[in-house]
Amino acid sequence: MTVITVPAPRRASDSSARPLWVSVEGVNGVGKTTAVRATAASLGSRCLQLDELTDQAADTLPGRVIAALSAEGDVCLRTGHPVVETLALLALKFREVERLTPELLNGVDVILEDRGVDSVAVCQGAILHAEHRATPARAVAEQILATARRWRSMPDATLLLTGDREVCTTRFATRIGRIIPASALEVIEQTEQLYQELAAAEPDRYTVIDVTGYGREETGKAVEDAVRALLTHREVDRAS
Fold first, then answer.
1. What is the edge-to-edge ordering of all strands in the sheet holding 47-50?
2. Average pLDDT over all residues of the chain
3. What percent of the chain has pLDDT above 90?
């Protein structure tokens, strides 16, 4: 497993000592959030957890933006203005990096992010493709990532959780207490495909973890093991 070296976040003064940034990705219902929380709890103070944007408190800026994007009740945060939605989500991810002060990162070995800029790229790429079929979803996703790279570092490593899409979708529907409409199911299917394409294009950054048939504890253990392996790999690199 190889971890690529990327530029340090803007506020980090010592790139050799900055935390390892690991994002966890995957379709809704695959078990990302539960696994991230379990891993962060296990690692304790050496881990800084960044919550998914949709899990931010309602009285925060991210919470208010997400509330505005979900005002129409669409599970994919569609308001009819996909370009604006994309820019708003990217802005929140840029802000996330800029708020990581040296004081906040003191003693932190790993930043564990529940959905990173890759989520914005694949989800919005799928949404924009659905509205403009002539433009390939992959091309849109790559353009979104190219925009993101101009403003912030990409994660050092990305863990992509994969599983049975129907099972994941059922879990997601149960969690939100709603039936997932066909238009949203199409976006989810396209999102899954885009994740796989991005992982294949960036094997040095992506690690794919198949959690098909896993329960919560097993998924959490798989993510924790992967994060600990990445941390060990980085320490070996530093020592060599």
1. 47-50, 110-114, 20-25, 157-162, 206-210
2. 90
3. 75
The dihedrals phi and psi of 126, each to the nearest 5 degrees, come to -65, -40
Task: Pull the structure tokens for residue 15.
Answer: 């790139």
Neighbours of 64 (CB within 10 A): 13
Q: The whole model's pTM is what?
A: 0.89
Farthest CA pair distance, the chain = 54
Query: Averaged over 101-122, what is the pLDDT?
Result: 95
Amino acid identity for residue 86 in this structure: T
pLDDT tier at 218 (50, 70, 90 boundaries)? very high
DSSP string, 130-181: HH-TTS-HHHHHHHHHHHHHHHSPPPSEEEEEE--HHHHHHHHHHHHTSPPP
**Helix 137-151 vs helix 82-98: angle between axes, to the nearest 10 degrees?**
30
CB atoms within 10 A of CB 60: 10
